[in-house]
Amino acid sequence: MQQLENRDRCELWPGNEFDWAVREVEGQSGGLISIWNRKLFVKTSLWHNNGLIVVNGRWIEDNGELVIINVYAPCSSTEKA
Fold this sequence. Notes:
Blueprint: H1 6-12, E1 18-23, E2 32-37, E3 41-49, E4 52-59, E5 64-71, H2 77-80
Antiparallel strand pairs: 1-2, 3-4, 4-5
């Protein structure tokens, strides 16, 4: 996953009522993307690190706090260490 352009993201999610967080490719590990509907979930903060995206926000329907965690783990046991 190289640099994603807005039009590329639009191909992944119909319409334009979405937001996203991206962790670009590093070395041979795959990148991560989290996409959500802005009409349902409002991001309040975002944190990312190697192989991890954490999105904090508010679920609009019941005004509840929600944390979305997207994790990438290598398949090789030596890379996991």
